[in-house]
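Postdoc handover notes: sequence design on the structure in folder B. Input tokens:
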């Protein structure tokens, strides 16, 4: 005879059904391979990468943003005709993105990830854009999963740094150089010259800022 109190307690992992969300909106993707395509953006809160030129520093503190149910996020996506969903941050891979991508795929959406590569990949993604930062190194396993490598150019030394990362991604990975917005006037001519001399790279611009859209 066994008593219930004598049975071992099994720890069952609990999947989070919510995520901290700074903002969400339907717009046009402004950068990289998918530039110009309609997409719904989900910007998750939380980041410890610490780029001093980050233009969404308010995303860094995950506790500053409301916890939204994954089901509600999917419902918000489905209120628009587009089915491409960009999950960005902050650094989205600080969270377990598995439940979110599963719910989005169940709703016939396609998932695009924007990450610094500093954390392991969670979730199932249709497109992975890795934009490595000097302040926290990208993981080799995340670089190996990159469909797109997008390097922000702030200084002349960043071209060599970009090449170091290009050597770590698969041959199929699309390579982009993007001028940091605050330094665009200075760095864009050098970036253009570099791409002309190294044509496996492409220029990426923050076209949403030129268009004055989110």
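Designed sequence:
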């Amino acid at each position: 005879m066994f008593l219930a109190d004598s049975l071992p307690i099994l720890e069952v992992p609990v999947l989070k059904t919510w995520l901290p969300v700074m903002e969400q909106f339907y717009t046009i993707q402004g950068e990289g391979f998918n530039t110009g395509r309609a997409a719904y953006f989900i910007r998750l809160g939380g980041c410890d990468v610490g780029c001093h030129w980050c233009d969404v520093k308010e995303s860094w503190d995950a506790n500053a943003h409301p916890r939204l149910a994954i089901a509600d996020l999917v419902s918000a996506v489905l209120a628009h005709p587009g089915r491409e969903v960009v999950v960005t941050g902050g650094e989205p891979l600080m969270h377990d993105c598995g439940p979110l991508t599963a719910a989005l795929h169940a709703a016939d959406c396609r998932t695009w990830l924007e990450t610094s590569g500093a954390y392991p990949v969670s979730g199932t993604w249709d497109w992975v854009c890795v934009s490595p930062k000097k302040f926290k190194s990208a993981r080799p396993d995340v670089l190996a999963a990159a469909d797109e490598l997008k390097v922000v150019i702030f200084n002349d030394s960043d071209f060599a740094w970009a090449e170091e990362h290009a050597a770590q991604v698969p041959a199929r990975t699309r390579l982009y150089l993007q001028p940091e917005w605050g330094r665009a006037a200075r760095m864009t001519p050098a970036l253009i010259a570099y791409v002309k001399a190294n044509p496996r790279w492409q220029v990426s611009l923050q076209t949403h800022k030129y268009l004055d859209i989110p």
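Context for whoever picks this up: Residues 1-14 have pLDDT under 50 and may be disordered. Don't rerun without checking with the PI first.
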